[in-house]
Amino acid sequence: MQVRDFCAQLIQTFFTANIKHILHVLLVHGFLFLFSLGLSYIAILIKEAQQSSVFIVSQSASLLTEHKKEERRVRANDREYNEKFQYASNCIMTSKYNNITFLPVNLFEQFQEVANTYFLFLLILQLIPQISSLSWFTTIVPLVLVLSITAVKDATDDYFRHKSDNQVNNRQSQVLIGGILQKENWMNVRVGDIIKLENNQFVAADLLLLSSSEPHGLCYIETAELDGETNMKVRQSLSVTSELGDPNNLAQFDGEVVCEPPNNKLDRFCGTLYWKDCKYLLSNQNMLLRGCVLRNTESCYGLVIFAGPDTKLMQNSGRTKFKRTSIDRLMNTLVLWIFGFLVCMGVILAIGNAVWEKEVGALFQSFLPWDPPVDNFLFSAFLSFWSYVIILNTVVPISLYVSVSYSLKTPILFLKF
To answer: Which Pfam family is one of this chain's hits (predicted)?
Structure first.
């Protein structure tokens, strides 16, 4: 009876003396919750503004860099002369990873997702025994599972990029070497080589049209891979080179082209051909760009001006980047809001713990003392906050990103049937 009366007295004392204090704490916490939400929204707006400003600055810097670059010089049938400029080869690479960089780069990309970073932080907290209320095994298993599934998907996508690059780099092209047409892989084509194209063949690099089997040096190309247009376009060689239709004559051609540096302007080309003490102006009408297809023309010859990553097609494609869709940004925002709610819940429970330890828990110190690291009710509330964050971690959906990613890819598999 004495124990029951003592407990009843404690409960009555707690609820009568601290109800106003608890209401005050809840009101203050509600204000802090709204204030934190406002700060998170402002942070998102500032981040978007910074991204737009960085994009504008980068575009301006790229334009300035382009103007500062030196002009390009290319001499026909002279690999030794062209190699001293260290021009890019005709080998392309659109993949993001290799065997060495896959693991670190992929993990860096995955931890840009807010949920993955949160669960990594949670795993670190669970390694601290004073605040860990759950085993670290309950967090590392789902985290590793999600990271593995995403890594397998990214590795599969990059494998097909490697496969596509290998197919393109090993396409055959006829290159004029020593007066003889020899079959070479696209990756072995160099700036300054003269290439023969036949009907329905892809253009291996950005070429200056020298001659054609059609009258007046005309040829017809399809630029669907460049601009999506399927109608035929006409290109014409210079009249002074249109008569060099024979491989023997082309082998003696030693003209030098001085032109603009590599850029992504599909409808512009400025250059000059110097040959036999004369100079001839060049324009986009004299160029065959990589990705075009020769149509309705038996054959033509072209001089390689830009190769590989310097071609206008590759200049427009750019480097393969980690894509972030609007859905990814929305999910990151939602996870931040959920995390804010979790923090608020942890703060409320920690405050309740501090109040209880100060008003009631102190009465039990004689037979139920605090653990050695804890010496006051404030430190106990601090440790309780992190413990509640660990306990309530399931409110943040770690599998949300994987579910959305595969829900977008599954319909593509059905479309292939």
So the answer is: PhoLip_ATPase_N
